Amino acid sequence: MNLDFFKNNNISVDLAIEAHDIVRGQLETEIPGAVVDRHNYENATVTVVKIVEPQAAQMMGKPIGTYITIDAPAIRDNNRVAQKEVAEILAAQLSSLFNLPENANVLLVGLGNWQATPDSLGPRVVDQTIVTRHLYKYAPEELQGGMRSVSALAPGVLGITGIETAEIIKGVVEKIQPDLIVAIDALAAGSVERIGSTIQLADTGVSPGSGIGNKRTGINKETMGVKTIAIGVPTVVHAAVIAQVTSEHFLEKLQQNPMFSQIYNNLSPDYAQDVINSVLAPFAGNLMVTPKEIDDLILSTSKIIAGGVSMALHPAINAEQYSMYLN
Amino acid sequence: MNLDFFKNNNISVDLAIEAHDIVRGQLETEIPGAVVDRHNYENATVTVVKIVEPQAAQMMGKPIGTYITIDAPAIRDNNRVAQKEVAEILAAQLSSLFNLPENANVLLVGLGNWQATPDSLGPRVVDQTIVTRHLYKYAPEELQGGMRSVSALAPGVLGITGIETAEIIKGVVEKIQPDLIVAIDALAAGSVERIGSTIQLADTGVSPGSGIGNKRTGINKETMGVKTIAIGVPTVVHAAVIAQVTSEHFLEKLQQNPMFSQIYNNLSPDYAQDVINSVLAPFAGNLMVTPKEIDDLILSTSKIIAGGVSMALHPAINAEQYSMYLN
Amino acid sequence: MNLDFFKNNNISVDLAIEAHDIVRGQLETEIPGAVVDRHNYENATVTVVKIVEPQAAQMMGKPIGTYITIDAPAIRDNNRVAQKEVAEILAAQLSSLFNLPENANVLLVGLGNWQATPDSLGPRVVDQTIVTRHLYKYAPEELQGGMRSVSALAPGVLGITGIETAEIIKGVVEKIQPDLIVAIDALAAGSVERIGSTIQLADTGVSPGSGIGNKRTGINKETMGVKTIAIGVPTVVHAAVIAQVTSEHFLEKLQQNPMFSQIYNNLSPDYAQDVINSVLAPFAGNLMVTPKEIDDLILSTSKIIAGGVSMALHPAINAEQYSMYLN
Amino acid sequence: MNLDFFKNNNISVDLAIEAHDIVRGQLETEIPGAVVDRHNYENATVTVVKIVEPQAAQMMGKPIGTYITIDAPAIRDNNRVAQKEVAEILAAQLSSLFNLPENANVLLVGLGNWQATPDSLGPRVVDQTIVTRHLYKYAPEELQGGMRSVSALAPGVLGITGIETAEIIKGVVEKIQPDLIVAIDALAAGSVERIGSTIQLADTGVSPGSGIGNKRTGINKETMGVKTIAIGVPTVVHAAVIAQVTSEHFLEKLQQNPMFSQIYNNLSPDYAQDVINSVLAPFAGNLMVTPKEIDDLILSTSKIIAGGVSMALHPAINAEQYSMYLN
C-alpha cells in the first residue's frame, strides 16, 4: 500500500505510525527527518515517532510534531489488568506532551457523532470525564493543588449542527481561554488489527480531513490559538482498504512469477481502483469495517481514555481511586 | 399558592401563565399592565399573556414580553391527530413572534441534560431537527426561498461541561452570528396536569434560574445580543410543590371553620415549610414528580416541537411532508 | 400512615421493613410472629425481618419468609468505597438465603421496563451480569468448582410484550429447569430517603401487584415451582405517598390542640383522599417522585447489584476481580 | 463466488435470492425445482423464489418453501414516500404467506442483540410494534374483528442470556400457543448494495446458523410446532465477502489472458483463503462491513418493518393511521 491509494480514495491516514511504515516501506530506508523510538511494557508497546524535518512531514503527509502510539491488543479482550496498565501509560505519555502549572485550565473536546456508534468515542469520553472548572474557584486550596480546572465539550458534527466543528470549539475557546485543548476522536486505521488496540497521542492536534467523520477544518494550535493534543483510537477500517489490501496480498505471490508482470502491465492503471469502486458501490467511502461488538469496544475504550486523561490532568487522583474510576 | 413559596424553595415559576394566575388570584383583580387573550382550537387552547408594564413584570417575576401558552392535554394520550394540530399551532405562533426574511440565519439551542431523562427535551429536539446551514450556500435559489439557514446546538449543562451554558452559546453566536436564537428547554410546572400537555413560547428568551437544571445565566437578547425565543414544555413538577398544594387543599376546607384560624395562627410561620423539608429530605430541591412513562412523553413531545419548529422556519415544508416528518 | 392508605390508592408496600414499621406503629407493640434483627457495618445497616407466623403475615400483608434490608445512604453519593462494601454485604446476605451446590443452575430475571428509566433497574442488572450457562459444560472442572451455571432473562412488561411476565418466565423455567431464580426489580418506597439507598432481599420472591410496573402475577416458589429470591431497590415514591405524608405531618401538630379534633371530626372521612386525587389528576397512580439524577442512580445501583449477585453466585470471583467488575 | 466459499468461511447465505443467483451462475442454466417470479413497483421490485423440489433445496442450501425478496434502494435514502410504499408491499406480501382467521393469535419475535447496533433490528421492531394480546379479550367485538391478538418477545442472544434463543421462544410458545410466529432478524448479505435496501420474507422460518449472530438452532415449524415466517433485512456484509469479491473481480480480467491460467494453476488451492485470513486477523468472522450511518439505517428500517407487520396483522389499521404510525 502506498499513500497515493489513500489520497485517490479520499481516505485519511490517521495514524502517523502507519504513514511512517508505508513511506518507510516505499523508501526501503529510514525516512530522513523522522525519529522513531520504541518501549515495551507488560501489556503494551509505545512507539514515539518524531517528525522533525519539513521533508519528513511532507513525505508522510503529517505536520511536524510528536506522535505517540500505544499498541495494546490485550485491552480488546476485556483484560482489566491490561486496561488499567494502558490507562496509566496513557496518563504518563499525555503528561509528557504538556508542561503546565497545576492551576492550568484544560478543555477536553469529544469529537465525533454520538448517533453513529463507531464515531461516538469522543462524546463518550467526555460523558465519563470528571469536569472541575465550575467547582474549581470554590475548591479549597490544597485540592486546587492536585486538581486542574477541566471543562469538556462534545460539539457534534456538521450534519447534526450545521456548524463547522472547529467554529464551535473556537467560539468556546475564546470565551473560556483554556491553556490546553485535549481533543479525543475515533480514527480509521489501515489494518483491522489496530481496531480497539491502538491509542495515538499527537501534539499537533487534529488535522483537517482526518477522523471517521472527515472533519474539514483542523483543530490545532494554528486554528485554536492554544496548544492542542489529540488522542485517537481507530474504531474502523475503511472497506476500501480491506479491498486494496486483499488485492495487494493476492498480487504479491503472483508477481513472483516473471510471466505475470507481463500480464499485469497490460492492465489499465485504474484497474485496481475500478474493482474497489464496483465492489463498494453504492456506499463508496461511507462503508466501514468494524467488529460485530463495536458497541462494547467503544464503551471499554472510552473508559480507558477517560481514566488516563483524568489521571494526567488531576495529579491528586491516585491509582487506587483511578482504578475505581476506570472500571 | 403564592410566589413567595417558590422563592423560599428556590423553585422558578417557569410558566408565565401560572405566574399570572397566582398573582391574579392574590390580587383578586386583573393585573395592571398585563393583557391576556385566549383562542380555542379543536384540540388546544392558546393563551397569550403580554406583560406590557414594568409593574406587571415586577409582580409576576417575569420580564416584559409576550408569552404564548398552548394547552393541549390530548397530545399526552398519543393522539396523533391532536399532535399534528398542535405542531401546526406551534408553527403559526412561533412565526408570529419573529419577523425575518426567508434567507435569515437561525440557531436552535437544545438546553438541558441528555443524561437526565426529564431534562433531555432540548437535546432531543435538536437531534430531530433538520439543519440546513451547511447546505444552504450550495442550495439552488428556489430552495433557498423556502428554507432558512438553520443550525443547532446542544450545549449540555454545567455539571457535564464545567462551562456556563450561556458562555458556550455566546461563543458560538459570536462565530456564526445568527439573526435569531430559538432555545428549547424542559420546564417545571406548578401542577401535574401541565406535564406534557403545555407548550410555552416566550419572546423574552430563557430567564436566569429557570428550567429543570436551574440555568444560572439567562439566554436572551441582553446576554446574546440576538433576539431569542424560548420554547418550553413542563416535564416535571417539583415534589415540594406537590407537598405545598396538598397542604393548601387540606387547609382550604379546615379554614371554613372559624375555630380553625385560631389554631392555625398559633403555628409557627415556618411550619408548612418545615413539613415540606422533612418529607423531602435528603433530596430537597432535586426531587421531581414525573409520570412513570416520562421516556415516552419526552420522545413524543420532542417530535411535536421539532415538527412545529421546522414548519415555522422552513415555509417550503408543507403540511404533508411535515406530517411524515412529525410522526 | 397506615396500610389502608396504600390499599385505597392501589399502591403496594414493596419493602417489608416499611410494612413492619407501619404495623408496629399502629400496634404500638411488637408484632407477634415477626422477628427483627439488626447489624451495623461501616457504611450500611442490615435489618432482617422474619415473618414466622401467619398472623404477622396477614397483618403486614406479606407472605411468611425472610426479608433482608440493607440501608446504605452512602451509595447514593457515588462513594465507591461504600458501594464496594455494600456489594459485598449483598453477596453475603444473598448467599445466606440459598444453600446450593457449586454446580447448581441459577436463572437471573431482570423485571421491569427498559423503556421507562425508573423501572429499568432489573434489565440493566441483567445486561451487566456474567452469564455462564452456555459456557459451563465446556469449562474445565476446576473452574466449574468456583463458577455456577448462570443464565439471565429480561422478560419485559405486559405493555411491551402482551404476555404476562410470569408466563414468559415460567415457559423458560420449564425448558431450562434452574435450581434457583433470582429476580431483580425496581421498587416503590414509602419515603424518599430510601430511594437509591435501600436494597431488599426476600426469599419469598416477588408478590403479585408489587414493583413499579404492578406485576399482576407473583414470581415465587408457588408460581414457578423453583425457589425464588427477589432483590429490589426503591427508585421512586408514589406521588400520592408524598401528598399523604405531607398531610399527616401537617395534621400532627394541629392535633396537639384539643379544639382541632372537633374540627377534624367534622370532615368527611374521604376528605384526605379527595385532596390527593385532585392534586394528582390526571395522572393518579402513575405519578412518581424521583431524584432529577434518576438515570445516574439506576446506573450505579445496577452495578452494585450485578457485582453482589456475581460474587454470591460465583465463589471463584474474588474481591479484587469483583472490584474491577463492579465499578 | 460459489457456495463453497461461504461454507469454508462459516458464513451463512441468508438471502435465498443470493443463493439462487450463485447456484444459477454456476449451473449456467435454470435450477430445476426452483421457480422465480418478479414484479415491479414504483419504488421496489419483488422477487418470489419458490423452492419446490428437494434437489433445488439441496443445491441452494435452503429448505423447500417460499422466499420473497423486496428490493428497494430508495428506502435507504430517507425517501418517505418509498418507505411508505415498501411498508405496504411488505404488508401485502406478508399477508400472502399466511391464511389466518381474524381472531388468530400471533407472536412476534425480535431476534438479535440490542447491544450490538447492526444486530439490533429485531428488538427494535418489537419495541415499535403495537401489541394487543393483553387487551384483546377485553376489546369490543367489532374491534376484535379488525385487530388480531399480537404478542411480542425479544429473547436476546446466547452471550447475554446463556440460553439458546430457540429454547426461550419454545418455552413461551408452549405457554401462549400462538397460531403463527413472525420472527424478525438482521441478516448478512453477499453484496453491500443490499444493506438496508432488501427485505426478505420466508415461510420456512429462520435456519440454524443464519443471521448476524449465528443462531445455532432454527426457529421454524419443526422446532416450534407452529408455522413460522421470518422477516430479515441485511445490515452487514461479512468483511471476508468483501475480500473475496475483490479477489474475484481482480482475477476476472486477468483470466482473460491465456498465460494467466498457467500461473494461477500453480497457486495453492488455499491461497485465496490464506489471503483473506491474514487480512482479517485477529477478528476473522467477526468483522462486519456497515455504512457509517448504521444507527440511522437500523432506526428507519425498523419503522418500515413495524409498520408493514402492523398493517398485515391488524386489517383495521388503515393506510392513513399506518402512515402516522410508520413515520
Automatic annotation (TrEMBL), chains A, B, C, D:
Keywords for this protein: Hydrolase, Protease, Zymogen
Keyword Zinc among record annotations: no
Pfam families: Peptidase_A25
BP GO terms, sorted: proteolysis; spore germination
Record's comment on post-translational modification: Autoproteolytically processed. The inactive tetrameric zymogen termed p46 autoprocesses to a smaller form termed p41, which is active only during spore germination.
Propeptide residue span(s): 1-14
GO MF, any single term: metalloendopeptidase activity
Entries under InterPro entries matching the protein: Pept_HybD-like_dom_sf (IPR023430), Peptidase_A25 (IPR005080)
E.C. code: 3.4.24.78
Signal peptide annotation: none
Annotated catalysed reactions: Endopeptidase action with P4 Glu or Asp, P1 preferably Glu > Asp, P1' hydrophobic and P2' Ala
Tagged with keyword Hydrolase: yes
NCBIfam families recorded: GPR (TIGR01441)
Protein's job: Initiates the rapid degradation of small, acid-soluble proteins during spore germination.
Family: Belongs to the peptidase A25 family.
Family annotation (HAMAP family): Germination_prot
Subunit structure comment from the entry: Homotetramer.
Name of the protein in question: Germination protease
Source species of the chain: Pelotomaculum propionicicum
Gene coding for it: gpr
